[in-house]
Specification:
The protein is of the alpha/beta class. Helix content is 40%, strand content 18%. α7 crosses α22 and α18 packs antiparallel against α20. The C terminus is likely disordered. Bound molecules: adenosine-5'-diphosphate and magnesium ion.
């Protein structure tokens, strides 16, 4: 018996060249192969008489070859082979392109099973390139449910299927990790059956069951892992803070905190005084004032002689945070510094020295904070802003620079409560569900192309009043998809034909990091009137002077994403607007977009998104900061997620430290998932 960790090159027909192709799919071992799940199936179990074949509907049929296949050489590189077949119900002519195999293997007078779809025209029915097998052969491509695998150039579905089959024949699938009581309660297939059935289901119902089992398993492992992390953190100790005099901080604020901000601060202070390290997520819609909550935490840390590090995903965000914290803290006698990659070596060295000596109490920075060169005197608090851009790995790297420092994560992605627990199962959550007073909601409209002239006039009006506009496009370049606005092209059009007198800037993801930052910073300084951009502007940069956002082909974005984008405007005192354009006439799509016009409540929008598009959007996207799930490409339902989570929570509570083989197998799987996550989450 082979082992799951054995290389795939031990299989027949998998040499170094094939192995390279498999490597493109991240498949190196037999285990990887067995866990390379189909993305779908073709049901080839239906057998029909020729007369019942329907145009464009593929099906299997049994027929006799009525003549010797004839090949005609049409031109260089194109050979056509034609052959007639028939059954009791009718006749059909088959055409094959460049297929030598046919001439030798379809023999006059014999019967075969074919699978294909007829195309009809007035001359008669015809079928192109059907697959076929002898009726007494083992079904490989006909009379079965054919798994359809994710592929890579040069690797055929048949080759993957063959390799998977062999792997399943020579080694046992991954061990069972779901306790029997759980399987029984949720009607879940045993591991052994599921791993076979996902590749070779007897029928579609079994394929569904296998899929459910594997999804359940993956989420069970994931949430069990989070529960264990949480449990092990609860055992950690941190010196409890004792100085909670926040009065000077509140007095220095130019405003009073909202009720939600006060509640979040209270949660945080409680954590800091608890004697165990804080692990808290502050989740709040754009503009809900997360920065001040973080500032309160940093102030408290400083009052207790501890250093804080605030990590932002981009330089410009780091600079903005630095500026606002500096303004707030310097009158309070707290030293704030900035540390980013683009600073000179000398500047960075200086900051690092002052960090190590303890002179700096609050440092704001980018990934530069993570390098080994950055050392702290006494790091007590780590704050990660816009956490979906950071993985668990980066969070923990920063944390490792102190002794179990307190961790505060801030996220502007409103995640429905149902999912939040699953995604952040290792964190406590405070929610900022209230905006600072006097904030006018961004007024949102959905319009069609007929409004183009009015949109342009609206942009001009905002600019003439001294404000700035964002125009967001779904693509960077024209070629990507026909009829979809591309930022680079649209920027040119606007500059050359619509607004020759205005300053148009461009920002997209294919630009270099430094270029992007420079473009954004320049726009923030007011050096352009209109910024044409892709979704890269999604992350929290503050341009209070921007009062209008036009989102082109808005149907191309998810609701939550649109909401994030829209959050870029409405950050100043002036009333702001968001205009969604769409050519799409699909009633469901329009309903989705209209929902966005009606509400500015990010949580409601996220719930709506979840209802309409399923959880895949939250879990599937790389932005979520979650490990990539092997089954995430398969669609799944929320019920399965919830069941898996309930079951794992209960099970960890009862058996988390048990020595039973299943418990051990589960713990080692958790280890694997989270190690894999380290690599993929950045
Ligand atoms: P977030 O990071 O949650 O999107 P910010 O922290 O950037 O939001 O805050 C958005 C704006 O609101 C900032 O200009 C900030 O100074 C202001 N702000 C924050 N809290 C309050 C408050 N309680 N009252 C008035 N303005 C506030
Ligand atoms: Mg923010």
């Amino acid at each position: 018996m082979a082992r799951l960790s054995d290389p795939i090159t031990m299989l027949k027909g998998v040499g170094p060249a094939k192995a390279k192709l498999f490597a493109n799919l991240n498949i190196f071992t037999l285990g990887d192969l067995i866990c390379h799940f189909p993305r779908g199936y073709e049901d080839r179990t239906q057998m029909v008489p020729i007369a019942s074949l329907q145009v464009d509907v593929p099906a299997c049929f049994k027929a006799t070859v009525m003549n010797t296949p004839r090949t005609a050489h049409i031109r260089k590189g194109l050979d056509l082979t034609k052959v007639q077949v028939a059954d009791h119900s009718g006749r059909l002519s088959l055409t094959f392109f460049n297929n030598r195999y046919v001439t030798d293997n379809l023999i006059y007078g014999r019967e075969y099973i074919f699978y294909g779809a007829v195309s009809g025209d007035f001359i008669g029915y015809n079928m192109t390139n059907p697959v076929f097998e002898a009726p007494d052969s083992q079904p490989v491509t006909t009379r079965r449910i054919l798994p359809i695998y994710p592929l890579t150039a040069g690797l055929t579905n048949a080759a993957v299927l063959k390799a998977v089959r062999q792997a399943l024949a020579v080694c046992d699938p991954p061990a069972e990790i779901l306790p029997e009581e759980v399987r029984r309660q949720y009607g879940i297939l045993p591991a052994e059956r599921a791993y076979f059935a996902i590749h070779e289901p007897r029928d579609m119902a079994e394929a569904e069951q296998a899929k459910k089992r594997l999804i359940f398993e993956e989420f069970f492992v994931f949430s069990a892992g989070l529960s264990l992390m949480r449990a092990s953190r609860a055992e950690k100790k941190a010196p409890p803070y004792t100085n909670f005099n926040m009065r000077p901080f509140y007095a220095a604020l130019p405003f009073t905190l909202t009720g939600a901000q006060q509640r979040a601060v209270r949660d945080i202070l409680q954590d800091l005084g608890s004697g165990a390290p804080m692990n808290r997520l502050v989740q709040g819609d754009v503009g809900s004032g997360k920065t001040m909550v973080a500032a309160a935490a940093a102030y408290c840390a400083a009052q207790n002689g501890k250093q804080s590090a605030l990590m932002a995903p981009t330089e410009i965000l780091a600079e903005q945070h630095f500026a606002s914290l500096e303004r707030l803290f310097s009158p309070l006698g707290i030293t704030v510094a900035l540390l980013t990659g683009s600073m000179t070596v000398k500047q960075k060295k200086m900051v690092r020295e002052r960090l190590l000596s303890g002179e700096i109490q609050v440092v704001v920075g980018t990934h530069a904070l993570l390098t080994d060169a950055t050392q702290f005197c006494d790091l007590g608090l780590v704050i990660a802003d816009e956490q979906h851009r950071f993985g668990v790995a980066q969070r923990s790297k920063l944390s490792a620079k102190g002794e179990d420092p307190n961790l505060l994560v801030m996220s502007a992605t409103p995640i429905p409560r149902t999912l939040a627990l699953l995604m952040y199962g290792d964190l406590e959550v405070s929610i900022l569900d209230e905006l600072p007073p006097g904030r006018e909601p961004v007024e949102t409209f959905l319009v069609g192309e007929a409004y183009r002239a009015r949109i342009n006039a609206f942009i001009r009006k905002h600019v003439s009043e001294g404000h700035q506009c964002f125009v967001v496009c779904p693509a960077v370049e024209e070629s990507e998809e026909l009829g979809i606005k591309a930022a680079s092209v649209w920027a040119d059009t606007l500059q050359q034909t619509v607004f020759p007198d205005l300053r148009i800037a461009l920002l997209h993801g294919q630009m270099k990091g430094a270029e992007k930052e420079a473009a954004m910073a320049s726009f923030a300084r007011g050096e352009a009137d209109v910024m044409v951009a892709t979704t890269v502007i999604e992350v929290g940069v503050d341009v209070p002077n921007a009062t209008l956002m036009v989102i082109e082909d808005a149907d191309r974005f998810g609701l939550s994403q649109l909401h994030q984008l829209r959050g870029r405007v409405g950050r100043g005192k002036a009333k702001s607007y968001c205009i969604l354009t769409s050519h799409n006439r699909n009633p469901e799509t329009l309903q989705r977009l209209k929902a966005l016009c009606k509400t500015t409540d990010g949580f409601k929008i996220a719930e709506e998104d979840l209802k309409l598009r399923g959880p895949g959007d939250f879990f599937g996207s790389r932005q979520s900061g979650l490990p990539t799930f092997r089954v995430a490409d398969l669609s799944y339902d929320l019920t399965t997620l919830k069941q898996a989570q309930e079951a794992s929570a209960r099970w960890i509570e009862d058996h988390g430290t048990s020595d039973a083989p299943e418990a051990k197998a589960l713990r080692s799987r958790i280890g694997e998932l989270f190690t894999r996550a380290e690599g993929t989450m950045n």
